[in-house]
Amino acid sequence: MRDIFRKRRMWKFATELKPRYDVVIIGGGSHGLATAHYLREHGIADVAILEKSYIGSGAAGRNTTILRSNYKTPEGARFYDASVKLYEGLGADLDFNLLFSQCGHLTLAHSDRAMFVMANRAEVNRLEGIDSQLIGPDRVQELAPAMYVGPDTTYPIMGALYHPPGGIIRHDAVVWGLARSAFEGGAEIHPYTEVTGLRRQGDRITTVETDKGSIEAGVVLNCTAGWSSVIAEMAEMQLPITTHILQACVTEPVKPFLDVVVVSSQMHVYISQSDRGEFVMGSEIEPWTTYRMQNTLNFLQDLTRHTLELFPQLERARLLRAWAGLCDLSPDYSPILGKTEIENFHVSAGWGTYGFKAAPIVGKMLAELVATGKTPELIAPFALERFYTDELVSELAAAAVSH
Fold first, then answer.
1. Cys-Cys link to 77, which of 71, 243, 286, 374 (CB 3.0-4.6 A)?
2. What's the mean pLDDT in 91-96?
3. What is the pLDDT of residue 76?
4. What angle (nearest 5°) sits at the alpha carbon of residue 336, between those of residues 330 and 341?
5. Predicted local distance difference test score (pLDDT) of residue 324
6. Burial (0-12, 13-18, 19+ Cβ within 10 Å), 95
7. What is the mean pLDDT of residues 76-86?
């Protein structure tokens, strides 16, 4: 009887590195773990996931859990829509409750120009079969009755882009579910194992050097948000990326009164309420490049001021904690995904503020790339070579706020 009720092991961390692996994934966040999960579909199990801290310690554990696909470009909208659709079935796929709530997503418009941009995005989305629509202030008030939409505000709300499939998910649950699947599929998870170098011969990476020893690799994947350019330099190549910090904070739990995600590009704020009643709030990336993940007073002052303009009810709510994470930004605010000039070195980088929402589709596409050697059509527009052929995929207007 005791065996029946014995707890199922989530995963077991590997203690020693083998001399060689078919696939070495650098980064134990949502992208690296998702890739290992989908490699199972191709029968590839000789995989090592190397993480210099605990799994999910980077962007996967420092985001604000918002999922959406209402992007500006057809390439971006199509890509993120595929990811949202995977997220819709990911809990069942992993046999793990991810607490995914598709409560809807509002991007507020405060000017005539903003309304024009939202209308344009809505049309792009509809052409791709994505549910997005431009709505007026009355409808905004219906969807978020607790939000102040009065005419005497600093930034009057003229309308919004309403995206019903958008929502929030539990990010640590995503990491745990993917880690368990990767482990059950045969992948080895090596936390607290830092990559210190990549040994290259010609057009191939032959050896991955770590603080626990050196290993040979058939394919190497760089899935390190914040550190992707550092890892690339180890391989003697450059990525057109700058690294910035992104800050967020959360209040104490309060009685639920917001069941939709609210974003304002002009006010540089995005707000949602968790299933525990906490208000999760974030803002824009900081303009300076740094790897120092510390919160700033300016962030808290600006964020709370704008939040109270929308939700004055939170005036006496106490902040529980604040945190910062690293964001890699590419010149066109779109990711760099897939093959590089090095034959067996692939990247998932340049995600800026929207990498977590892409985790399942990134894993699926990278796994297909590793298994077949061919770039999937869905990610072809995000190849590194676009910066040499001048075929950029500009998502600046849709990613100006970190959400």
1. 71
2. 96
3. 95
4. 115
5. 94
6. exposed
7. 97
Q: Where are the alpha helices (DSSP H) in 261-344?
A: 297-310
Q: How far apart are CA 154 and CA 110, in angstroms?
A: 10
Confidence of residue 403 (pLDDT cuts 50, 70, 90): very low
Question: Across the strands, what pairs with 208?
Answer: 198, 215
Where residue 284 falls among pLDDT bands split at 50, 70, 90?
A: confident
The helix or strand, by DSSP H or E, that contains position 31, with its residue range, turns out to be helix 30-39
CB atoms within 10 A of CB 85: 14
Residue 61 identity: G
Instruction: State the angle between helix axes of 74-94 and 359-372 in degrees (0 to 180), rounded to the nearest 10.
Output: 90
Spatial distance between the Cα atoms of 67 and 87, rounded to a whole number of angstroms:
9
For the chain, how far is it from start to end, CA to CA, in angstroms?
Answer: 48
Tell me, what's the pLDDT at 390?
A: 93
CB count in 10 Å sphere of residue 171: 23
- CATH placement of domain 20-63+172-240+331-389: 3.50.50.60
- What are the DSSP E strand ranges found in 27-118? 47-50, 66-67, 105-109
The DSSP H or E segment spanning 181 is helix 171-184
3-state secondary structure of 155: coil
Mean pLDDT of 236-261: 95
| pLDDT, greater one: 146 or 4 | 146
Strand residue runs (E) in 45-194? 47-50, 66-67, 105-109, 133-135, 159-163, 167-168, 188-190
User: What residues form DSSP beta bridges with 101?
Assistant: 168
Can you state the angle between helices 74-94 and 171-184, rounded to 10 degrees? 70
At residue 132, does pLDDT exceed 70? yes
Classify burial at 16, counting beta carbons within 10 Å of its beta carbon; exposed 0-12, middle 13-18, buried 19 or more. Answer: exposed
Find where tokens 């992208």 sit: 31
Task: Tell me the DSSP string of 224-282.
Answer: -TTTHHHHHHHTT-----EEEEEEEEEEPP------SEEEETTTTEEEEE-TTSPEEEE
Domain ranges of the chain: 20-63+172-240+331-389
